[in-house]
Amino acid sequence: MQQPQLVAIRTIIKSNKRWDLLFGVAGFVALMIGVLTFAALFAQMAYNGWERLTPEFFTNFPSRRAPQAGILSAWVGSLLVMLVTALAAVPLGVAAGTYLEEYAPKNLITDIIEINVTNLAGVPSIVYGLLALGIFVYAFGLGQSILSAGLTLALLILPIVIVATRESIRAIPQHIREGAYGLGATRWQVTRDHIVPYSMPGIMTGVIIGMSRAIGETAPIITIGALTFIAFLPPSPVTPEFPWISFEWLKSGFTVMPIQMFNWTSRPEEAFQQNAAAAGFILVLMTVAMNAIAIWIRYRLRKNIKW
Amino acid sequence: MSDSFTATAQPHSLTPHTVSERLAKKAFRNLKERTIETILLAAAFVSVVATLGIVWVLVSESVHFFANIPVHDFFTDTMWTPLFSEPRYGILPLLLGTVTTSLVALAVAIPLGTTIAIYLSEFANPSIREVVKPFLELLGGIPTIVYGYFALTVVTPLLQALIPSLPGFNMLSAGIVMGIAIIPYVSSLAEDAMRAVPMNMREGSYAMGGTRFQTAINVVVPAALSGVLSAYILGISRAVGETMIVAVAAGMQPNFTMNPMEPAQTISAYIVQVALGDLPHGSIGYQSIFAAGLTLMLMTLAFNILGHLIRRRYREAY
């Protein structure tokens, strides 16, 4: 090849390589924008809220005086709402996912259910709030209660639990089922003794990720009319007299962590912004912890399972 | 022939008594199997009931609303003042607020999300990817109220340092933070689509002397186009329905403008504002949030269907 041609080719290669390098840097920068935003958000809330993160912050009710205000009613409310959500969403979601993978025949009803699950995952959370307001609060007469809120969030995370269940069931090789059927097991015995236990880690991951989404959801709970200023705790689920268990708390008014934070954020005083930062810090810490557990389970799962 | 087969297959020890016992046991087992299958089907059917519930609630309350407010006014009036003494119900200001904040968010999320997806799928070595992906997932899992607080107390002051005339509540800050919040949705779906492109297509490009960048732009992205586009659509429908960031950082007054430097209210933020107040059940103000919700639902539904069609239309099967 002649010298001028070689030079021309080298120039092209050089420019191509420059673009390649440039994009590599751009990609890294874009990634860092995401990661640094997370770091900045976390650091800013920790810095602003640090003074307020005392034991009293967790044991005080909200108050008109910012330094005495705490998140007692908020974290108790969040805990109870999450309990209802988990009790409703996990059995329903796992049962629905199992049905779709192990039982469902190929027919119109199955298609309709599958389309619905996909569609529900794309519905904005505020619309779930409107659904709950119209149906749970007024049509069923459950009121603005812990039960209404828990059921609303359960519907919200149902698609997440269903999809996680289906994916982990699909990962179980067919020969496991064939082995069990070959020994004369019925479909339910195969499902109960093999399919569900083996897909448990995957289901757990989905449930935890769903719960971490539910714990931070604000809009649907505001929509059903949760109060923003609650200075009492719901009645205790454990009573000193006979049946020892009471379900009065399900009907109680409540507030949750994100709503308490929203309430403080929307106040102009600096001191309440500090409270908001502290509450936000706790909230992010909780979601990070839940996600970390889910990631860890998934990581272990990938390492340990050899069919 | 089948007769002789069953005859030889019968074990001699089976007396009629045990046969009937076994049949009874089998009938019980069948009954149990059927019952369980029905229960599981009922659980799966909850999703259908939920969808029907959403449609019923939104439509039935909106019907009452539109009995009082003509549909024509709803879509053409440029004032949304439901809490004034002479209320006006024109959805346009809220719609513009939703569209403007979503556009700002997409202007952030689409370039950054696509770049991150290409970087993770084509450039980054596996160890970086293993570390970074959980971080991105965390970014997507942060409660939106926390993002709202971040927009109001960090991003708005930063922007005000650059643009001194910026008001304390504005759509720009809310949109930017919303964009960052939906990056993980865009990037992870787009990356999945890119990684599904078969290796031999890349190898073809590399064999012709293509760089990683040329391979990514000319081979991988076109091949993964349907997946990348549906990642964008998912981002759009997330942005349209996003509530708390705009409710906290964009202000609460409906504003007939598309200028992101101004405060405005979105459809979702209006619903939150009404729910925070004390509107009596059955009043026109109460019904207005369902009409607003129906509008929102139809918008996201349109995008979801569009995403579905794109996936079907442009899917390349390898």
How would you portray this structure in words?
With 307 residues, chain A is mainly α. In chain A, helix 3 (72-103) packs across helix 10. The longest helix of chain A has 47 residues, at 3-49. The radius of gyration of chain A is 26 Å and the shape is flat. In chain A, 74% of the residues lie in helices and 0% in strands. Chain A folds into two domains: 3-51; 53-304, MetI-like fold, CATH 1.10.3720.10. Chain A has eleven helices and no strands. By secondary structure, chain B is mainly α. Chain B has two domains: 13-68; 92-314, MetI-like (MetI-like fold, Orthogonal Bundle), CATH 1.10.3720.10. Mean pLDDT of chain B is 87; it is low at 1-9. Classes of the chains: A mainly alpha (307), B mainly alpha (318). Chains A and B meet through helix 1, helix 3, helix 4, helix 5 and helix 6 of A and helix 2, helix 4, helix 5, helix 6 and helix 7 of B.
